[in-house]
Design a protein that fits this description.
Blueprint lengths: L2 H11 L13 H4 L2 H18 L4 E3 L9 E3 L2 E9 L6 E7 L6 E7 L4 E7 H5 L6 E3 L7 E6 L5 E2 L3 H9 L3
Length: 166
């Protein structure tokens, strides 16, 4: 056995089983964190367009919001399911100007979402916000379990009812 084969054997022995192994959406886990947000925003925009709902990108990566839908500004956060079975939506900011926080959760074989008015997020309706770093109060993380979120197939109806009021 050559050294590379031996190293691969040792790596396999020390690598825990993953819910992502051979899963349909496993490639999402290989994408750099900085690109996951762009993927989430682009997916939501295209998914809504395919259902006749106009969603426009707003500004750049550093803009206060990501999408504009029906005159409302959305901050989109995207996360993959972790080994504990939850989503960690990072860098939630309450000091930015947007109307809704939209969380897109990517599981190994499905996609979930949830969204709240910004005021509801700051009042705790979305869940407990935890500071991203000790001693600062600008960026937070929001942890959500899959059972508390909606299937992506419900998004067009939710958007029509809650945002577009049709």
């Amino acid at each position: 056995m050559n050294p590379v084969e031996l190293m691969l054997l040792v790596i396999r022995e020390h690598t825990p089983e993953s819910i992502w192994t051979d899963a349909p959406l496993e490639p999402f886990r290989r994408v750099a964190n900085t690109n996951r947000g762009d993927i989430g925003e682009n997916f939501v925009q295209r998914y809504l367009h395919r259902h006749g709902i106009v969603a426009n990108r707003v500004g750049s990566r550093i803009s206060a919001a990501d999408l504009e839908i029906g005159g409302k500004l959305f901050e989109v956060k995207t996360a993959s399911e972790d080994k504990g079975g939850a989503f960690q939506f990072n860098h939630v900011r309450l000091d930015r100007t947007y109307d809704y926080l939209f969380c897109l959760g990517i599981r190994p074989d499905s996609i979930l979402f949830d969204a709240w008015r910004k005021g509801a997020v700051s009042e705790g309706s979305a869940g407990t916000l935890v500071r991203m770093a000790e001693g600062q109060s600008v960026t937070f993380k929001l942890t959500r379990k899959p059972a508390t979120m909606k299937k992506i197939e419900e998004l067009p109806g939710w958007m029509l009812k809650e945002v577009l009021k049709t």
